[in-house]
Structure formats: C-alpha cells, structure tokens
Amino acid sequence: MSQTSSNSRKKSPLRKAPIVVIAAFLLLWLIGGATGEPGRVLEQAVQVCLSCIGIG
Amino acid sequence: METVRKWVQVIMGFLMNGSWSFPFTRTIYQGPLKVICAPGLNCYSCPAATTYCPMGSLQQLLGGLRFALENGQYYFGFSVLGSIGILGGLFGRMICGWACPFGFIQELLHKIPTRKFGVPRLLSHGKFVFLFLFVIVLPLALVDESGIGSPWYCKFVCPAGTLEAGIPMLLLQPNLRNTIGLLFLNKFVIMLIFLTWAIFASRPFCRTACPLGAFYALFSRVRLIKLRLDEARCTNCKACHHVCPMGVKFNESPDDPECITCLACMNKACKFDAISLEIGGIPLAVPDRGISLSSKP
Ligand code: SF4
Ligand code: SF4
Known about the structure:
Helix content of chain B: 40-55%
Radius of gyration of chain B: 20 Å
Oligomer: heterodimer
Shape of chain B: globular
Bound molecules: iron/sulfur cluster
Number of strands of chain B: 3
Mean pLDDT of chain B: 94
Strand order of the largest sheet of chain B: 1-2-3
C-alpha cells in the first residue's frame, strides 16, 4: 500500500538524502556565481522579455 | 492552517511582485533585487515583479549558451539550477502549494462555484515534456544564424507570462499593441484555456503544463520537508483521497510527485493521525485538530 519504509513514528532516523541534494545544488549555485552568471541573469531580467509578452 | 497557507501565498505573491511604481514609470522594475530567484512561476516581465523567473532565465541562458561560450562566458544556467535545486531539496512542491502566485490564482478561480471535474492522471506527464523539450532541448538545439535559441516555453506556451506580463505591458505601453500577431493570439488562447479550466478543475496548469512544478516534482522523495504516512495507523478509509486538490491518493503514494504539501489530507481528512509533517525524518507537526471535518471543501 505504501511506498515508504520508515513510517513508524517512534523511529525517526535523520534522512541524509535531502542534505546531500541541497549541498550539491548549493555547490552548483556557487559555481554559477563564480562564472559571473548572476550578472547575466540580472541583465536579462531587467529588460522587457518580448517572448514572455507574446510579441517577440 | 488553511488560513495560514492563504496568508503565506498572499505575502509571497507580494514579495515577488513588490514594485508598484509601474503606473508612473510604465515599465518593469529594473533594480538589483532582480538577481534573486522567484521560488514560483512568476513572470519577470510582470511590471511589478521584483525577482527573476527561474524558467524564463534558464531558457534565456541556454538559448544564449553557444554565443556565450564563443565569448568565453560559461553561462550554463548553474546559478538558476542551483537556486531552484536548493528550494526543491528543502521544500519540493510545497513551493507550489505555499509560494507560487500562478498556483494561487488558479486556487482562487477554483473557488467560483460550479460543477467540478478531475484531471486525468495521464496528463500529469505533460509538464515533464514541457520542462525537457521546451525549457531545455529546444532553446539549446534550435538556434538562429547568430547562434541564439528562443525561450520556447515563454514564447509559445506560458500562460503566466501572458497574464502577468503580456496584458499589463500592452496596457501600459500602447506602442506595443501594433506588434500583436499570431504569437500573442496563440498565447492568449492558451491562457484562456488554463484559466477557464481552473474554474472547473483544481490547478490544471500545475498538474499538466508547468515546467517548474515538474522540476520540483523530481524532489518528491528527497525533499527535507514532507508528509509522512504512519502505516500502522492508516485504516485505508480513503478520506485523504477526497480532499486532495492534486488528485493524490496519499495513503497509496505518500511521496507522490504531485503533492504540494497543502496539508489538507493531514488536517481536514485523516481522523486517525496517520499523516504527519516531518523535517529530514524528524516529526515536525501533529495534525491540526483545530480544523474540523465539517470545514472540508
Ligand atoms: S506547478 Fe508551476 S504554476 Fe503551479 S504552483 Fe507550481 S510553480 Fe506555480
Ligand atoms: S496529498 Fe495531502 S498535502 Fe499533498 S496535495 Fe494532497 S491533500 Fe495536499
């Protein structure tokens, strides 16, 4: 019936998978930041995106 | 708890759309806050938008990747993926239930009293196709003569862009109206279909066509905050099936990629305390017994 294996409320093991996933994406975010990508994102975000409006 | 969720939705909507000078400037906000990633689907060409849309930015970066690489710039979209990946790892689709303005708009439309219908489960695969094809593959693969790809999802599909940016910008800048053509008509019809559908079915866009919802759905098993089923307490009464706005049968699929952690099943349905909220495996909350069964939608 259920897909979870550790469902007993008494047993509450700390799940490590989310920490690993968050750490991996934090690393990705830092790498993106180091390449100067946020500057490019900002440049694009402050311009009106004609595609978003539906005319570009 | 439902009231708290509504207030969080309102506050998040205002945080992502906090610039109200557009009636005077007649254009979008262009300040430094736009380096911050919006957690939900919120068009960055909305005149009030104070953050960038992760799906829009990702398409722009991937579309411009060849050009960027030729110029020695390694803009692979890592900062955008990193931002939504961190959010996904923390909250998964709880973002959809608590922090996405377009999800909130659909919830409000669904309150209009009419006969209500379900959404065929098969259609839920559509959003993964949009994410993979329209957000990643097509902007990367189909480029013009200068090596630039189009933001396919923004250009041909996104109803949030039409509603939050297209219509307001056409009202603010009359000169843009001369450029309206088939592209706009296509997007306008798509927007009308989803907004009308949202009156009759719960969150049809989120369930079938949102690429950001699809991305967050990938974290359903590994997100930090999630619901947990206590099998020993579950009587298989199926009450949780009837309250879910996303068509999830919680006791059969506790890590369902569609679950937006609205907590309706926990607070409004389960009488046996079989559903609880946890952070990283540690129980966070017991069901909110302050909400009675009679408050079911
Ligand atoms: S599925 Fe998309 S539109 Fe719906 S709530 Fe999630 S991010 Fe927002
Ligand atoms: S399974 Fe429960 S928490 Fe998840 S969307 Fe459905 S009612 Fe909301």
